[in-house]
Every structure is written in structure tokens, then in C-alpha cells.
Amino acid sequence: MMDGPLAENDGNAIIASYDWSALSAELDAYGCAVLPNLLDPAACRDLASLYAQEQGFRSRVVMGRHGFGRGEYKYWAYPLPAPVQALRSGLYPRLAVIANRWNQRLGLEVRYPGTHADFLALCHETGQGRPTPLLLQYGPGDYNCLHQDLYGEKVFPLQVAVLLSEPGRDFTGGEFVITEQRPRLQSRAEVVPLRQGDAVIFAVQHRPVAGSRGTYRVTLRHGVSRVRSGHRHTLGIIFHDAL
């Protein structure tokens, strides 16, 4: 198991350095926001290199076999690699504040606890005990269909994807895409430009939007456009565990 270059304290310091008021406003307005340089190039390369290993993963999914697109990904097993665990536990408290505010705006009673360990305990009480952080690999012609990562009753409404490869050097194409469907309107697409080490925070399923008659809920889906050349690796951080 890789200890990695990102210790938990280092990860917390990086996470604390972002302007979370501005990020919260971006998420309110668009359903997504970028964390520039969340991981350095060495950390990105170390994580991407793990894809070739069998140890440490609980399953491998070939997207084409399930109609998910083309490409593949692996779910990590517990214990997670130290950098992944540091990001998952460090990002969660910041995102829980936003998630709770969104639920309040939507009139939902669900509130998320302040620590990720406490939230996972709630997941495990309902039988959701399988870890969901994953490592994705795309080659030429691969893509990820628009989808939502829902794994059971307990769903945390925000997740994070970190680009581990460098666009233009390691691959071309392969843009992160998020779409939003508002009632009685056509879908809106957002293409999020990322560099190696950048992360995008985005809504898993819904987000609140202010309308003329109050706040209403819009539906979001995310995916990856076709990779035109090279290979693209991504770290996915989902905060709820799976059934």
C-alpha cells in the first residue's frame, strides 16, 4: 500500500488554503467548482501508477460491458491509500457545510455530520459498507456516459474528481462534462477545463436553484467526452459508501 507524498496534515493545509466562500458561490451558481493544484505532479503520477496493480482494489469495471461508455475503472478496497484517505476525510467537512445549506434551501430534513467518520458510520448502519473512491483509466476512443454515482439510501450530494494526467501531453480530448436539467427547459452543459492535479467538485444528483416561486431542485449528470489520443487517469472521491 502506498503511503504517498500527501500526508494528512499536508492535505488539510492545502484544503484550508482555498477560498471556500468563493467555491461555495461557484457551486451555488453552476453546480461545480475547481480546486486548482490540489495534488502535485508527483502525487498524480504515483496514484495513476497504481492502476496497473491488483493489490488494494476490490473490483474492476469495464464500462463497455455495462453500457457505461468505454474505458475502465477500479474501486479501492479498505484501507484506502493514504493520499486518498487524506483527501476524503479532509474535504468532507468543508463540503458538508455546503450540503447542509443546500438541503435547508430545498426543505429537506437530512443533515450531514461534521466528520466523515461519523457520516460513514451512518452509511454502514444501512449496509453501505463498500468503499467508493475509484481510479479511472481511459485510452483512445474511450468516454464516460452521463451518469450519477448513487450507491444506496445514504447519498452525499457532492463529490470530487482529480485529474491525474496532463492534457496536451498525456492525452487529448477527454474533457469533464456536467449537464443540468431544469424543469421545462432544455439541458445545459458545462465543460470544466482541468490541468494535472486540478480537482472539480460537483453535485452528485441535484442542486438548489432560486426561482420566481422559491427554490427548486435541478438534476445533474456528469461524464467525460471522448479521449482522442493518449491515456487519461482520474481519481474519483465519492463520500458515501456502497451497498
Give me some keywords for this one:
single chain; about 240 residues; alpha+beta; Jelly Rolls; 15 strands; globular
Describe the structure.
This protein has one domain: q2cbj1_9rhob like domain (Jelly Rolls). It has a 7-stranded antiparallel beta sheet with strand order 1-11-7-15-5-4-2. Strands 3, 6, 9, 10, 12 and 13 form a 6-stranded antiparallel beta sheet that branches. The protein has a two-stranded antiparallel ribbon with strand order 8-14. α1 runs parallel beside α4. It contains 5 helices and 15 strands. It is α+β, with helices and mostly antiparallel strands and 243 residues long. The N terminus is likely disordered. It is 26% helix and 33% strand. 37% of the residues are buried.
